[in-house]
Specification:
Elements lengths: L9 E14 L4 E16 L4 E5 L6 H8 L7 E6 L2 E2 L5 H10 E4 L13 H11 L6 H13 L16 H14 L4 E5 L7 H18 L2 E6 L2 H7 L2 E6 L2 E7 H6 L4 H8 L50 E2 L5 E2 L9
Parallel strand pairs: 3-8, 3-9, 6-7, 7-8
Antiparallel strand pairs: 1-2, 1-4, 4-5, 9-10, 10-12, 11-12
Helix pairs in contact: 3-4, 3-5, 4-5, 5-6
The structure holds iron/sulfur cluster (SF4).
């Protein structure tokens, strides 16, 4: 399990987010979808920590629960040493200036009835960052910083291309002068030709403003380019956590190995063995006992069916939750 260090900007400990399943005319709770089930990690200032995994693994819910867009079921989130989950509404309003999110779909993230200048200006007013003439100056400054023109502030979201809209969403987050940004699949709704431009923009902004990113993605090629460290999620749990280089060189968890084997290689002379996983991801409403991956794992052992492996550090420095790497003695 990851432990807190003084220099960490974000420390997440045993975070859980369960969504109730309601049934019947009385909407009684009949179970829970365990979207995030005991996740712990920390992020250093200026770092890009990537959360990866198939859709439905809980990576986006983790990001949103950290920012309190969802109420956590339990756990602890410390941001610059401050208790986020226990913060008052007023304190949370202040923390939100510093903790921003960029969503996957830039169109639905913007109000179609407001010009982008009005959308960004409204946030500046709500957070009392600027007033009067300063608002327009700040709006134009962040739009230009994000690769748009000052006159774009008078335009409506539908007048932009997908890539430009995502620039607007990034500009809106940047306007508040944040330290930490959750980038939740920020390029997956964009054309491939535009994706690298947005990735370059995020990198430029990180350098210019010392930003820290929680980068959520299912695309391991993009993560390889962006991340400093990688966390792999499966059924609401972290199953591997490693520095990027180590992760791509020697993934230890069988699920990570399968994910990495599916990345296409550009050189046709390189033969790569693809690991095809059998079966579907089990429902997070009824996760399997023992190792969450045991219903699909090619290395399944008896112990895997009943004992849940803990995330523990291996010799290489990678933290991994697997009985193959950490046999039970
Ligand atoms: Fe596979 Fe067992 Fe490791 Fe789970 S604990 S990944 S089932 S070998």
């Amino acid at each position: 399990m990851t432990t807190a260090a003084a220099a960490d900007i974000l420390v997440v400990t045993d975070l859980k987010k369960y969504f109730p399943i309601r049934t019947g005319v009385l909407s009684r709770i009949s179970g829970y979808v365990k979207a995030v089930d005991g996740v712990s990690f920390s992020i250093k200032p200026g770092e890009t920590f990537a959360l990866v995994g198939e859709s439905g693994c809980g990576k986006s819910t983790t990001g949103r629960t950290i920012l309190r867009l969802y109420d956590a079921t339990s756990g602890d989130v410390q941001y610059n040493g401050e208790d986020v989950l226990g913060a008052s509404r007023e304190r949370m309003r202040k923390l939100r200036k510093s903790m921003q999110i960029v969503f996957q779909d830039p169109y639905s993230a913007l109000n179609p009835r407001m010009t982008v200048g009005a959308s960004i200006g409204e946030i500046l007013k709500v957070h009392r960052i600027a007033a009067g003439k300063e608002i327009r100056e700040r709006v134009e400054e962040v739009l230009v910083r994000c690769g748009l023109e000052a006159y774009h502030s008078w335009r409506y979201p539908h007048e932009f291309s997908g890539g430009q809209r995502q620039r607007v969403v990034i500009a809106r987050a940047l306007a508040l002068d944040p330290q930490f940004i959750v980038a939740d699949e920020p390029i997956s709704a964009l054309d491939v030709s535009i994706q690298s431009q947005i990735i370059n923009l995020l990198e430029d902004l990180q350098d210019a403003y010392d930003l820290t990113y929680l980068f959520i993605s299912h695309d391991l090629s993009v993560v390889r380019h962006m991340a400093d460290r990688v966390g792999v999620m499966y059924l609401g749990k972290l199953v591997e956590l490693a520095p990027k280089r180590q992760f791509y060189k020697e993934p230890l968890h069988p699920y990570s190995q399968a994910l990495l084997s599916a990345i296409p290689v550009s050189d046709p002379s390189i033969k790569k063995k693809r690991i095809i996983l059998k079966g579907d991801v089990p429902s997070p409403a009824n996760p399997p006992a023992g190792c969450p991956f045991h219903t699909r794992c090619p290395y399944l052992m008896d112990v895997c069916r009943s004992v849940t492996p803990e995330l523990m550090r291996a010799e290489s420095g990678t933290e991994v939750a697997c009985h193959l790497v950490h046999p039970i003695t």
